[in-house]
Amino acid sequence: MNILDKILKEKEFEVENLKKSFPLEQLQEGIFKKKYDIRSLYDALNNNNTKIIAEIKKASPSKGIIQENFQPLKIALEYFNGGASAISILTDEKFFQGKIDYITAVRSVVNIPILRKDFIVDDYQIYQSKFYGADAILLIGKALTLKKLTSLCEISQKLNLDVIYEVHDNDDFKKGIEAGVKIFGVNNRNLETFDVDNANVLNFINKIPNNSILISESGISSKDDLDMLVNLGVKNFLIGEYLMVSPLSKNTFSKAIHQSGGVPLIYPTLKTDAQNQAIKFEKYFFNEYTGNVLNELKKIDSNEILKAVEEVYSEEFFDFVVDGITIIEPLMESFKKGNIHSVDLIIGANNDEWSLYHDDNVDVNKWLYEETTPEQKEKLLNL
Length: 383
Hints:
The chain has two domains: 3-249, TIM Barrel (Alpha-Beta Barrel), CATH 3.20.20; 258-349, no CATH class. By secondary structure, it is an alpha/beta fold. It is built from 17 helices and 14 strands. The protein has helices at 3-21, 24-34, 41-45, 72-81, 101-107, 123-132, 146-158, 170-179, 223-231, 241-244, 262-266, 271-286, 294-298, 302-312, 331-337, 364-371, 374-382; strands at 51-56, 59-60, 64-65, 86-90, 114-117, 136-140, 162-167, 183-187, 213-217, 236-239, 255-259, 269-270, 321-322, 344-348. Strands 1-4-5-6-7-8-9-10 form an eight-stranded parallel barrel, surrounded by five helices.
């Protein structure tokens, strides 16, 4: 059994379990409520300029871990600010250590199309992709019969999802032509052996129909590789590992100053608590929760927002959130495990900081002393 067959077998098992935990009907209902704006990948690529779909990928079966300190939102912003035309996100968990939640998170910080890159073998995954905010999906020729490919393309079209159809040889290409796909991605990596041949894309450059788009996938390891293919007429590229290991994407955080506000960082809001707070906040204004009201909230006067915050969160903090993406766990847990980025750190404190919460006539130091327990007093004095 080759690598692709192993992944596809695991994927079928994974999808069947997902259908039980999150039924298709719930996905379809959620899609109707979310109403994402349409970001066309086809339109983003359909011009004569050189375009790059920049990929967010933590690991792969061939290379193992690609980036240890993996921060998908930070990477997405670097790609966006660097001029990427779209962002591809690996969502397979077992073999690529991806998460489908990354799509929703990245969508909130960029306004370019997002491609879900996974091994899609079932209708369910198309609806799942739309539910989490993807604008396009990848369908792999080697993984699908013509009948299944056509069916998945039809569902994608109904959901306003663009399709990149991935080919490696002429048999794959013929299926794509018959299915009527508009975006062909030529994988220069053989998915059965994982060997790479950058020239593979040149076998198809003169074959694609008019009004179709050709993308070169995989194998770019230097600017020279890119320039060579551009000079031969290739205009669109999906690049992953080269960007992920580029020195430009590493070591951008090297020193820190911690001045006040330490409690929320040490004891941040849990993801479930933050979601419950968001539901309360939305219901305050709209009497129901849909999960997609950011644009509507932007229209509300800021004074009304502040009033709502005071009423909704009167007994709660709303601080850093352990979302599993940007903040993996509470800071103290990271310290206990040694799972921290070692950088130079200055810690500071503000004189009379707590006076912000009291009248001018209150002796803040006395108040703090009275609020501490005997055990805390002893620890402080021992310091």
